[in-house]
Amino acid sequence: MASLASPFRFTLSVKSKSSSSFPFSSSGIGFRAPSRIGFNSMSQPAGTESGPSQDDESVKVEKDNSDVLVQYVVLRRDLIDTWPLGSVVTQGCHAAVSAIWSHKDDPHTLQYCSPQNIDSMHKVTLEVKGEPQILNLSEKLTAGGITHKLWVEQPENIPTCLATKPYPKSIVSSFFKKLKLCK
């Protein structure tokens, strides 16, 4: 299998019976020749080398004008300053996964996690000062009908972060406009 740094992709394929001396030939498994992958995406084949076409430009403009789906993750600044960074990041991951899994049948979540969008998810990670602020934000989101997961670390019972389910940005951005980006 090619490493992540390799610009080539090896594709596993099932072959019909062959008299090849390849070790897997009797099982019907073989490898196709590698194909070149562009450096813009690890999972998508490279486009034309001559640059974007007129159609590519119109698609890009259309995507820019559409209402992008976004998931907001909000962490507590006081925990970022006092806990190991990995622990705080893990709390955010827990909240994000829980928010998506809890709403896995929601149309926005299905679109956000679809094969076409899986490599271009949009998340915004913000911060609040501490526990009172994250609880207040959770109450405002609930009152505004914004579905989210307030992650409470157990057994300590500490609210550490929250994450929304995926929403069109135009619907949820107003709830987060006064918060700072997490740095």
UniProtKB/TrEMBL annotation:
Gene3D superfamilies per record: Bit1
Catalysed reaction, written as an equation: an N-acyl-L-alpha-aminoacyl-tRNA + H2O = an N-acyl-L-amino acid + a tRNA + H(+)
Bias kind Polar residues: ranges: 38-53
Signal peptide: none
Transmembrane regions listed in the UniProt entry: none
Protein name: peptidyl-tRNA hydrolase
Keywords noted in UniProt: Hydrolase
UniProt GO MF annotations: peptidyl-tRNA hydrolase activity
InterPro entries in the cross-refs: Pep_tRNA_hydro_II_dom_sf, PTH2, PTRHD1
Enzyme class: hydrolase
Enzyme Commission code(s) on record: 3.1.1.29
CDD domains (UniProt xref): PTH2_like
Positions of region (Disordered): 35-62
